[in-house]
Sequence to fold (173 residues):
Amino acid sequence: MSKQHSRHVVLDIETTGLYAQRGARIIEIGAVAVEEGRITAEFESLIECGKRIPGKAQKVHSITAEMLLGQPGPEQVFPSFLRFIAKSTLVAHNAKFDIKFLRYELSRLGLGLGNSSLCTMKMSKKRFPELPDHKLETVARHLLGELPTGLCLHRALDDARLTATLWVEMLNK
Fold:
């Protein structure tokens, strides 16, 4: 349980596509600070990046161009996010994907990311090899029995909250 005594930030992003190197961008970020096994702070923002949201991506997260109108741009969101995470260890489900996108967005602003990270998907593959897949929803149903009421899967803050719950559960098992 000693792993929980420092501050970790569990994050999730929603994007316009799967590949930053092909021009996809982050359009939503959600994060929760976890200290001693409890969520102590939250960060959430939609991001107006001026990029079209393909129908395929919109089907996944339901974020529309209209929802992004008037939202802050990357130059406002990401410096605030860096202040929120400070030197915390980052946690994400499929961390490789989220961290790669985050580094891409930060590099566009001349900023870097030096935080270490942990992946709950990797953890679940090691601990629960019997699962048919290791999607967030599958792992959640395995550990919690059912999904929390009112949860909106594939929205950044809800996915970050759910990932935090699963991470704490896996640490305690």
